[in-house]
Amino acid sequence: MTLEETPGQEPMPETSDSSSAGSATGCSRTQSAGKALQELLVSSQRRGCLTAGVYESAKLMNVDPDTVAFCVLAADEEDEGDIALQIHFTLIQAFCCDNDINILRVSGMERLAAVLGEGPQDNAEPRDLHCILVTNPHTGSWKSQGLAEVATYCEESRCNNQWVPYVALQAR
Predict the structure, then answer these.
(1) Pure H helices in the chain
(2) Which among 19-28, 49-58, 111-120 has the top mean pLDDT?
(3) For residue 137, how many C-alpha atoms fall within 13 Å in the half-sphere facing its CB?
(4) pLDDT per residue over 107-116, tens digit each?
(5) How confident is the model over 62-72, as pLDDT tens digits?
(6) Are 164 and 105 in contact (CB under 8 A)?
């Protein structure tokens, strides 16, 4: 049973006026969040405040969850059938919810890799970008406009019953 199927709740009818205005606003808001996410990832990587990889992220969250400021779970359509990855995502999402860490689901692995400067390397296995954590070390008071914008997007999405917000990164 999903939230939509909960007894006693009727779906809100969409009028042509509200759906067109809402979708335009939602689309620009999502694009704005995608741009802010890209800026956040680039600045975090420069500062050394980025942890990439499902296992590396799980280790960090187990050792020091208080340093984690934000979590990105990235997968494309072909990854949706990877049961092990989906189980990891479920566990990471549960941990983030328990520790009040904002989560954002992202598609567009190719664009994500480009943003982080990952390219095809000779004889090297590509870095796992399915889970990326942005950390905020205890030593400094780092403030990021991108982090604030993405956190606001996550909060607004939760207010609209989208518990794990989604952004599609567009290839350039």
Answers:
(1) 16-47, 54-63, 83-98, 109-115, 145-159
(2) 49-58
(3) 8
(4) 989 899 999 9
(5) 998 889 999 99
(6) yes
DSSP state of 117: T
> Which residues on neighbouring strands pair with residue 135, listed in sequence order?
68
**Token digits for 66?**
């208080």
Q: For 69, what's the count of Cα atoms within 13 Å in the CB-facing half-sphere?
A: 21
Query: Which run of H or of E encompasses 133?
Result: strand 131-135
Q: Minimal CA–CA distance to 88: which of 124, 123, 56?
A: 56
* C-alpha to C-alpha distance for 115 and 74, rounded to whole angstroms: 13
| Crossing angle of helices 145-159 and 16-47, rounded to 10° | 140
In the block, tokens 């942005």 appear at 134
Which residue bears the tokens 């620009």?
A: 28
Side chain identity at residue 48, one-letter code:
G
Quote the pLDDT of residue 59: 94
The pTM (predicted TM-score) of the whole model is: 0.77
